[in-house]
């Protein structure tokens, strides 16, 4: 049910609760200037699915674990209006023949309604959570491996085109194939083949729709990415090759108690191997080459369902606008710098990874709009404050790699430049990061005098293939009419020279 969110000047808090098969999660947020700010996340391992018997009856012990967790959540939500809280239950309570018994017990200590949602509704909410927290990347396949079910969705922007939920999850498969914690290649292959047969009818339809990007959400996929990052590939990219290497390493262990790997938590270990088998089947069935991890999932989808207007705007820009208001940034100056940055970015043609050119221009725009947010802390060291604020903020629409890149842009948009101190980002070529920083620095310089600066679109920009030689040529008389700009460019020439970059301007 849609709620009317407060006007930008009014602040209210909202909560979304996900009663999953393995864990219960709660997220509490505040709407600030039309954007979501996360206040807290709470997670409790409940293992509800472990309490389902062969007749799909939920045990009294599992019900007690669930209601104990809800009592903790209720304490955090004291003072909340029921209109501002949404709690949804998924696979296990969908399956439980005595789900009403659980809901009755929950109502005694949790004064908010709980909805048991269908698998398709769960899938669509997961897609919404991903779409609102990840950068737009065209058509995407979103996958979420839960405790009892797995959701698979293809969509464009905020609209799901195909959404399915199938009864295979890391908790249910753990009970079925890895009893008593024993690990074997035979059990792994049985789990894999069962998962494959559960989803093989979707293969043609989904591959026919197609996608540009595959995004995974929730615990199993997060853990796989962490283990790959710690043991195989620093980028944490879940590629088909990296996944095979991980499976081979995992199958060297014969029991969950012995399964010790950097990146694998003690809590996740008991259900990791069945989740890995399901992920293997998904990669094979849909012929997935690589998958990225998303922090957004069901809970975030519930949060964004509070307000329909969230689905009608660009997530990047919504986040930027919120930060501009929050830190009282001079919007006219930000727009001036962004306009110059766009002109410079359009003239730069030597991206090391040309397939990322559009993403680079989007990041340049974000850096130009947000470079002055640090003034809210102090004008002195503003660039450092701006970088700190970005690094430590929730940025819906920006993934972790983009947030790191934006932090670098703001940190080095002015003053001293030490390119050798940049931390390496596996997703972005070092040359492209360097070029982006230089483009933003030049855009800031061209607007150094703020409204007193004469704006110009009449200039050329030439660079070499290595981004080591830069030549700016302005219309005749421009630098004479703008001596401060000429002076700042002369200073920039010296700074870049110390970084082995040659700047010529005339």
From TrEMBL:
Task: Identify the cofactor(s).
Answer: Mg(2+)
SUPFAM superfamilies on file: Actin-like ATPase domain, HD-domain/PDEase-like
Which EC numbers characterise this protein's activity in its record?
3.6.1.11
According to UniProt, the reaction catalysed is: [phosphate](n) + H2O = [phosphate](n-1) + phosphate + H(+)
**Boundaries of every Ppx/GppA phosphatase C-terminal domain copy:** 315-493
Domain Ppx/GppA phosphatase N-terminal, first and last residues per copy: 27-309
The record's Pfam families line, in alphabetical order, gives:
Ppx-GppA, Ppx-GppA_III
Q: Look up and give the membrane topology term.
A: Peripheral membrane protein
A GO cellular component term found in this entry reads: plasma membrane
Main localization, broad class: membrane
Q: Which family is annotated? A: Belongs to the GppA/Ppx family.
Describe its assembly: Homodimer.
| PANTHER family membership | EXOPOLYPHOSPHATASE
Q: What is this protein called?
A: Exopolyphosphatase
């Amino acid at each position: 049910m849609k709620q009317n969110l407060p006007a930008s000047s009014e602040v209210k808090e909202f909560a979304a609760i996900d009663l999953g098969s393995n864990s219960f999660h709660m997220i509490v947020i505040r709407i600030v200037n039309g954007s979501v700010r996360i206040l807290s996340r709470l997670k409790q391992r409940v293992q509800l699915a472990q309490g389902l018997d062969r007749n799909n009856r939920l045990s009294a012990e599992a019900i007690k674990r669930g209601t104990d967790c809800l009592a903790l959540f209720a304490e955090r939500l004291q003072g909340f209006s029921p209109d501002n809280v949404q709690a949804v239950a998924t696979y296990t309570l969908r399956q439980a023949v005595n789900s009403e018994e659980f809901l009755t017990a929950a109502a005694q200590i949790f004064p908010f309604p709980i909805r048991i949602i269908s698998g398709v509704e769960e899938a669509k909410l997961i897609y919404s959570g991903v779409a609102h927290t990840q950068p737009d990347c065209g058509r995407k396949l979103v996958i979420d491996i839960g405790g009892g079910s797995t959701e698979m969705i293809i969509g464009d922007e905020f609209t799901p085109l195909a959404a399915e939920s199938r009864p295979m999850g890391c908790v249910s498969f753990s009970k079925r194939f890895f009893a008593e914690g024993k690990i074997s290649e035979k059990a792994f292959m049985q789990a894999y083949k069962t998962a494959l047969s559960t989803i093989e009818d979707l293969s043609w339809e989904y591959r026919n729709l197609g996608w540009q990007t595959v995004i995974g959400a929730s615990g199993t996929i997060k853990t796989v990415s962490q283990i790959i990052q710690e043991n195989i590939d620093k980028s944490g990219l879940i590629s088909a090759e990296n996944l095979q290497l991980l499976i081979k390493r995992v199958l060297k262990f014969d029991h969950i108690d012995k399964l010790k790997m950097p990146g694998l938590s003690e809590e996740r270990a008991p259900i990791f191997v069945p989740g890995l088998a399901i992920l293997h089947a998904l990669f094979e069935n849909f012929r997935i080459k690589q998958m990225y991890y998303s922090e957004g999932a069901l809970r975030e989808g519930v949060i964004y369902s509070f307000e329909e207007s969230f689905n009608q705007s660009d997530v990047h820009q919504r986040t930027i606008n919120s930060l501009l208001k929050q830190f009282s940034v001079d919007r006219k100056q930000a727009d001036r710098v962004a306009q110059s940055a766009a002109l410079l970015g359009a003239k730069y043609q030597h991206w090391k990874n040309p397939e990322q050119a559009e993403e680079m221009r989007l990041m340049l725009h974000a850096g130009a709009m947000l470079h002055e947010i640090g003034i809210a802390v102090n004008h002195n060291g503003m660039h450092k404050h701006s970088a700190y604020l970005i690094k430590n903020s929730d940025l819906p629409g920006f993934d972790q790699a983009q947030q790191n890149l934006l932090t670098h842009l703001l940190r080095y948009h002015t003053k001293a430049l030490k390119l050798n101190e940049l931390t390496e980002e596996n997703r972005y070529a070092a040359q492209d990061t360097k070029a982006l920083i230089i483009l933003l620095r030049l855009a800031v310089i061209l607007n150094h005098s703020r409204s007193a600066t004469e704006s110009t679109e009449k200039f050329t920009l030439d660079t070499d293939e290595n981004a080591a030689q830069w030549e700016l040529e302005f219309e005749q008389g421009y630098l004479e009419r703008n001596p401060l700009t000429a002076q700042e460019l002369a200073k920039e020439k010296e700074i870049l020279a110390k970084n082995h970059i040659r700047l010529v301007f005339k």
